[in-house]
Amino acid sequence: MIEVKNLHKEFKKNVKEAGLKGSVKSLFHPKTEIVQAVRNISFDVDKGEILGFIGPNGAGKSTVIKMLTGILTPTSGTCTINGRNPTVNRKSYVKEIGVVFGQRTQLWWDLPLRETYSVLKEIYEVSDEDYKRRMAFLNEVLELDGFITSPVRTLSLGQRMRADIAASLLHNPKVLFLDEPTIGLDVVVKNNIRNAIDHINKHENTTVILTTHDLEDIELLANRIVMIDKGTNVFDGTIGELKSKYGQIRELNFVVKDDEKSLDYKGHFNISDKDITVAKENGTVKVRFNSSAVAVSDMVSYTLDTVKVSDISVKDADIEEIIRRLYQHGDKEIPEK
Ligand SMILES: Nc1ncnc2c1ncn2[C@@H]1O[C@H](COP(=O)(O)OP(=O)(O)O)[C@@H](O)[C@H]1O
Ligand SMILES: [Mg+2]
């Protein structure tokens, strides 16, 4: 369905020396610098898949989305969607895709939402019958009724995002690109949007590429993750594979009856900061550690030998923890299984 091969994108950036003198100088002798936003990215997406496309800020995610949607042309490499090149025959290509950039709206600021949708209906050449059915469906999952007559500029962020997502789905696209669709939203709206994504994926078999910082979005929606950093691929696989590859992080919670001060995990096990974090709070000690550096059983016996414990629970690493560590260290510092 989607094939991305060795995608590169460079930007030319004007650099200015400091101060007024620098400004004048750069006016006459502009200096440019090349920014390698995307270095060598490849991945495939199957029809009907929801791909979580993640990575730290500045990794190149939005640039890749812009190339896939035909807004930017790759410096080199190729991407094809449904066998098509996004920059060729754009007018018919945009009918096959839906795009939402969470950071800015694609709606007309002064038009009431309802009018906006009528205009989009004409642009995308949606038949009256399809339009009616589609609007009824979008109304139901995204609850647009309460503000459909309001001008876009008066909508709250959550309403605006729902409106934007509805706009991107009006023409029943085969592929939906969502770049940070839940950014800055409260839990209720987030759930609303997640349900909508899940719904169109299940009912229309829409392929979805989802960029997000909210890892709950990923856990709830994505079948697969592609992670990039500094413009290159870091991981490509299922959440299960991510967990089994990097998931030696365990969390133990001890409810401690007496003074927890005598617990000194780092000193006792001689373990470095990157392999352990300890939080002591209200009689509970939470220890997160790399179980290939210290065995879970050793961690438990040391704790039981040192303090009186009334309860213990063990948790596997959640993907949030794994990804946070990957973002911080790059994958090399976390030992392979
Ligand atoms: N139009 C542009 N001109 C120059 N540099 C850009 C431009 N767009 C993005 N970049 C740079 O490319 C890199 C990747 O940006 P982006 O794709 O927005 O990352 P992400 O969406 O993962 O946060 C960043 O270093 C960013 O500053
Ligand atoms: Mg971005």
What does this 3D model show about the protein?
By secondary structure, the protein is α/β, with parallel strands linked by helices. Helix content is 36%, strand content 28%. It contains twelve helices and 13 strands. The chain has helices spanning 19-28, 61-68, 90-93, 113-123, 128-142, 157-169, 187-204, 215-221, 239-246, 265-269, 296-306, 319-329; strands at 2-15, 31-45, 50-54, 76-81, 97-101, 175-179, 207-211, 224-229, 232-237, 249-256, 276-281, 284-290, 309-316. The protein has a six-stranded mixed sheet with strand order 5-6-7-3-8-9, sandwiched between helices. The two termini are 33 Å apart. The chain binds adenosine-5'-diphosphate and magnesium ion (MG). Residues 61-62, 179 line the site of magnesium ion.
Distance N terminus to C terminus?
Answer: 33 Å
Q: What name does the CATH topology of the largest domain carry? A: Rossmann fold
Number of domains: 2
Instruction: Record the strand order, biggest sheet.
Output: 5-6-7-3-8-9
Average predicted confidence as pLDDT? 89
Summarize the helix and strand pattern as letters.
EHEEHEHEHHHEHEHEEHEHEEHEH
Q: What is the 3D shape?
A: globular
Counted by DSSP, the helix tally is: 12
Give the tally of β-strands: 13
Q: Evaluate the radius of gyration.
A: 25 Å
Which ligands accompany this protein? adenosine-5'-diphosphate, magnesium ion
Mind describing the biggest β-sheet? 6 strands, mixed
CATH class call of the largest domain: Alpha Beta
Ranges where pLDDT stays below 50 over 5 or more residues in a row are 331-337
CATH-derived architecture of the largest domain: 3-Layer(aba) Sandwich
Strand content: 25-35%
